[in-house]
Design goal:
236 residues; alpha+beta; 3-stranded antiparallel beta sheet; elongated
Length: 236
Protein backbone atom coordinates (compact mmCIF):
# COMPACT_ATOMS: atom_id res chain seq x y z
CA UNK A 1 0.00 0.00 0.00
CA UNK A 2 2.80 2.40 0.86
CA UNK A 3 4.46 1.68 -2.51
CA UNK A 4 1.22 2.40 -4.35
CA UNK A 5 0.65 5.66 -2.48
CA UNK A 6 4.19 6.86 -3.17
CA UNK A 7 3.79 6.22 -6.89
CA UNK A 8 0.41 7.99 -6.94
CA UNK A 9 1.76 11.06 -5.12
CA UNK A 10 4.62 11.43 -7.60
CA UNK A 11 2.63 10.54 -10.72
CA UNK A 12 2.61 14.05 -12.09
CA UNK A 13 5.99 15.14 -10.72
CA UNK A 14 8.48 16.99 -12.90
CA UNK A 15 11.70 15.05 -13.43
CA UNK A 16 14.11 17.97 -12.91
CA UNK A 17 13.71 21.21 -10.99
CA UNK A 18 16.46 23.76 -11.58
CA UNK A 19 17.15 26.40 -8.93
CA UNK A 20 20.23 28.57 -9.37
CA UNK A 21 23.26 26.32 -9.71
CA UNK A 22 21.54 23.32 -8.11
CA UNK A 23 19.57 20.65 -9.88
CA UNK A 24 16.98 18.79 -7.84
CA UNK A 25 15.64 15.61 -9.37
CA UNK A 26 12.38 13.82 -8.69
CA UNK A 27 11.63 10.17 -9.38
CA UNK A 28 8.81 9.80 -11.88
CA UNK A 29 5.98 7.29 -11.48
CA UNK A 30 7.48 4.97 -14.08
CA UNK A 31 10.92 5.21 -12.49
CA UNK A 32 9.40 4.46 -9.08
CA UNK A 33 7.69 1.37 -10.45
CA UNK A 34 10.98 0.13 -11.89
CA UNK A 35 12.94 0.97 -8.73
CA UNK A 36 10.59 -1.10 -6.57
CA UNK A 37 11.40 -4.12 -8.75
CA UNK A 38 15.06 -3.27 -9.43
CA UNK A 39 16.38 -5.88 -6.96
CA UNK A 40 14.46 -8.72 -8.61
CA UNK A 41 15.65 -11.12 -11.30
CA UNK A 42 19.23 -9.85 -11.54
CA UNK A 43 21.31 -12.52 -13.24
CA UNK A 44 24.53 -12.36 -11.23
CA UNK A 45 26.89 -15.02 -9.85
CA UNK A 46 26.68 -16.09 -6.24
CA UNK A 47 27.80 -13.63 -3.59
CA UNK A 48 27.09 -9.99 -2.84
CA UNK A 49 29.64 -8.08 -4.91
CA UNK A 50 28.72 -9.45 -8.38
CA UNK A 51 25.10 -8.66 -7.58
CA UNK A 52 26.01 -5.12 -6.51
CA UNK A 53 27.75 -4.44 -9.83
CA UNK A 54 24.70 -5.57 -11.81
CA UNK A 55 22.46 -3.61 -9.46
CA UNK A 56 24.47 -0.38 -9.86
CA UNK A 57 24.15 -0.64 -13.63
CA UNK A 58 20.41 -1.25 -13.36
CA UNK A 59 19.89 1.78 -11.13
CA UNK A 60 21.94 3.90 -13.52
CA UNK A 61 19.76 2.79 -16.43
CA UNK A 62 16.54 3.56 -14.54
CA UNK A 63 17.57 6.99 -13.25
CA UNK A 64 19.83 8.02 -16.13
CA UNK A 65 22.71 9.09 -13.85
CA UNK A 66 25.97 7.70 -12.47
CA UNK A 67 25.70 5.29 -9.55
CA UNK A 68 28.36 3.87 -7.24
CA UNK A 69 28.14 1.43 -4.34
CA UNK A 70 30.63 1.38 -1.46
CA UNK A 71 30.99 -0.34 1.90
CA UNK A 72 32.53 0.65 5.22
CA UNK A 73 34.39 -2.00 7.18
CA UNK A 74 36.81 -1.35 10.05
CA UNK A 75 36.55 2.42 9.38
CA UNK A 76 37.75 1.94 5.80
CA UNK A 77 35.63 2.63 2.71
CA UNK A 78 35.86 0.38 -0.34
CA UNK A 79 34.29 1.01 -3.75
CA UNK A 80 32.44 -2.21 -4.64
CA UNK A 81 30.74 -1.26 -7.90
CA UNK A 82 30.06 1.66 -10.19
CA UNK A 83 27.92 2.07 -13.28
CA UNK A 84 30.66 3.74 -15.34
CA UNK A 85 34.44 4.19 -15.20
CA UNK A 86 34.04 7.92 -14.55
CA UNK A 87 35.25 9.08 -11.10
CA UNK A 88 32.65 9.20 -8.35
CA UNK A 89 32.50 11.30 -5.21
CA UNK A 90 35.55 10.70 -2.98
CA UNK A 91 35.35 7.81 -0.53
CA UNK A 92 37.14 9.81 2.15
CA UNK A 93 34.52 12.57 2.25
CA UNK A 94 33.31 13.29 5.82
CA UNK A 95 29.70 12.81 4.69
CA UNK A 96 30.27 9.06 4.50
CA UNK A 97 31.59 8.81 8.04
CA UNK A 98 28.73 10.96 9.29
CA UNK A 99 26.30 8.42 7.87
CA UNK A 100 28.15 5.64 9.66
CA UNK A 101 27.80 7.40 13.01
CA UNK A 102 24.04 7.82 12.79
CA UNK A 103 23.31 4.10 13.16
CA UNK A 104 20.14 4.17 11.09
CA UNK A 105 19.14 1.07 9.15
CA UNK A 106 18.33 3.14 6.03
CA UNK A 107 19.05 6.82 5.37
CA UNK A 108 18.80 9.27 2.45
CA UNK A 109 20.94 12.41 2.41
CA UNK A 110 22.52 14.76 -0.11
CA UNK A 111 25.86 16.51 -0.15
CA UNK A 112 27.92 18.61 -2.55
CA UNK A 113 31.49 17.96 -3.64
CA UNK A 114 33.27 20.22 -6.16
CA UNK A 115 29.94 21.83 -7.09
CA UNK A 116 28.47 18.40 -7.87
CA UNK A 117 25.46 17.16 -5.94
CA UNK A 118 25.11 13.56 -4.78
CA UNK A 119 22.47 11.58 -2.96
CA UNK A 120 23.66 8.96 -0.49
CA UNK A 121 21.38 6.01 0.22
CA UNK A 122 22.73 4.10 3.23
CA UNK A 123 21.78 0.53 4.15
CA UNK A 124 23.06 -1.13 7.30
CA UNK A 125 23.43 -4.89 6.86
CA UNK A 126 24.27 -7.17 9.81
CA UNK A 127 26.79 -7.47 11.31
CA UNK A 128 26.67 -3.64 11.28
CA UNK A 129 28.37 -3.18 7.92
CA UNK A 130 27.30 -0.01 6.15
CA UNK A 131 26.65 -0.08 2.42
CA UNK A 132 26.11 3.25 0.66
CA UNK A 133 24.66 3.84 -2.80
CA UNK A 134 25.90 7.16 -4.23
CA UNK A 135 23.52 8.58 -6.87
CA UNK A 136 24.49 11.58 -8.97
CA UNK A 137 22.19 14.55 -8.33
CA UNK A 138 19.90 15.61 -5.50
CA UNK A 139 17.06 13.07 -5.26
CA UNK A 140 16.02 13.83 -1.66
CA UNK A 141 12.53 14.94 -2.71
CA UNK A 142 11.98 11.26 -3.50
CA UNK A 143 13.34 10.03 -0.16
CA UNK A 144 10.37 7.69 0.61
CA UNK A 145 10.94 5.82 -2.64
CA UNK A 146 14.71 5.64 -2.10
CA UNK A 147 14.18 4.47 1.49
CA UNK A 148 12.07 1.58 0.24
CA UNK A 149 14.80 0.84 -2.30
CA UNK A 150 17.29 0.75 0.58
CA UNK A 151 15.13 -1.75 2.46
CA UNK A 152 15.08 -3.98 -0.62
CA UNK A 153 18.86 -3.75 -0.97
CA UNK A 154 19.31 -4.75 2.68
CA UNK A 155 17.00 -7.72 2.21
CA UNK A 156 18.94 -8.98 -0.81
CA UNK A 157 22.34 -8.50 0.84
CA UNK A 158 21.24 -10.38 3.97
CA UNK A 159 19.89 -13.21 1.84
CA UNK A 160 23.00 -13.42 -0.31
CA UNK A 161 25.25 -13.36 2.75
CA UNK A 162 23.33 -16.29 4.25
CA UNK A 163 23.52 -18.17 0.94
CA UNK A 164 27.27 -17.59 0.69
CA UNK A 165 27.84 -18.88 4.21
CA UNK A 166 25.74 -21.97 3.52
CA UNK A 167 27.68 -22.68 0.31
CA UNK A 168 30.97 -22.20 2.18
CA UNK A 169 29.97 -24.71 4.86
CA UNK A 170 28.88 -27.23 2.23
CA UNK A 171 32.04 -26.73 0.18
CA UNK A 172 34.24 -27.13 3.28
CA UNK A 173 32.45 -30.34 4.19
CA UNK A 174 32.93 -31.72 0.68
CA UNK A 175 36.62 -30.80 0.69
CA UNK A 176 37.16 -32.50 4.06
CA UNK A 177 35.53 -35.70 2.81
CA UNK A 178 37.57 -35.69 -0.42
CA UNK A 179 40.82 -35.12 1.45
CA UNK A 180 40.01 -37.93 3.87
CA UNK A 181 39.62 -40.37 1.01
CA UNK A 182 42.54 -39.10 -1.14
CA UNK A 183 45.34 -41.62 -1.71
CA UNK A 184 48.81 -40.11 -1.94
CA UNK A 185 50.25 -36.59 -1.98
CA UNK A 186 49.39 -35.85 -5.61
CA UNK A 187 45.74 -36.74 -5.07
CA UNK A 188 45.67 -34.34 -2.09
CA UNK A 189 47.26 -31.54 -4.15
CA UNK A 190 44.81 -32.03 -7.02
CA UNK A 191 41.82 -32.12 -4.67
CA UNK A 192 42.80 -28.89 -2.92
CA UNK A 193 43.37 -27.01 -6.16
CA UNK A 194 40.20 -28.31 -7.79
CA UNK A 195 38.07 -27.13 -4.88
CA UNK A 196 39.82 -23.76 -4.64
CA UNK A 197 39.43 -22.92 -8.32
CA UNK A 198 35.79 -23.98 -8.21
CA UNK A 199 35.15 -21.81 -5.15
CA UNK A 200 36.32 -18.62 -6.89
CA UNK A 201 35.21 -19.67 -10.39
CA UNK A 202 38.77 -19.44 -11.76
CA UNK A 203 39.73 -20.57 -15.26
CA UNK A 204 43.34 -21.33 -14.31
CA UNK A 205 45.20 -21.92 -11.09
CA UNK A 206 48.26 -23.53 -9.52
CA UNK A 207 49.28 -24.94 -6.15
CA UNK A 208 52.86 -24.50 -4.95
CA UNK A 209 54.54 -25.86 -1.82
CA UNK A 210 58.02 -25.31 -0.32
CA UNK A 211 60.76 -27.50 -1.75
CA UNK A 212 62.59 -29.25 1.11
CA UNK A 213 65.95 -28.91 -0.64
CA UNK A 214 66.19 -25.13 -1.09
CA UNK A 215 63.07 -23.69 0.53
CA UNK A 216 61.75 -22.28 -2.73
CA UNK A 217 58.24 -23.03 -3.97
CA UNK A 218 57.59 -25.83 -6.44
CA UNK A 219 54.34 -26.01 -8.42
CA UNK A 220 52.77 -29.40 -7.70
CA UNK A 221 49.31 -29.06 -9.29
CA UNK A 222 47.69 -26.97 -12.00
CA UNK A 223 44.21 -26.26 -13.28
CA UNK A 224 43.48 -25.12 -16.82
CA UNK A 225 46.91 -25.96 -18.25
CA UNK A 226 49.36 -28.92 -18.06
CA UNK A 227 51.57 -29.31 -15.00
CA UNK A 228 54.44 -30.29 -17.30
CA UNK A 229 54.71 -26.67 -18.47
CA UNK A 230 55.67 -25.38 -15.03
CA UNK A 231 56.84 -28.30 -12.93
CA UNK A 232 60.47 -27.16 -13.34
CA UNK A 233 59.70 -23.61 -12.09
CA UNK A 234 61.03 -22.55 -8.69
CA UNK A 235 59.57 -19.50 -6.93
CA UNK A 236 61.56 -17.50 -4.37
Amino acid sequence: LRDSQSVTELRDATMTISSGDSQVRVVSAEQARRLYAAHLDIDAPAGRDPWLLAFARRLSTILGVKVGIMRRSDRTWTLLAQSSPDPLCPLGHPAFDELAERRRSVGVESFVHDATQWTLLSCRVPPARLTVVAIHGDWTLSSPILAMLGENISLVLRTRTAESRARLRLSTHRLARKLASAKGRQAIFDTILRHMTRAVDARIGALAIPDTTDGRLSIVATHGYPLALVEHVRID
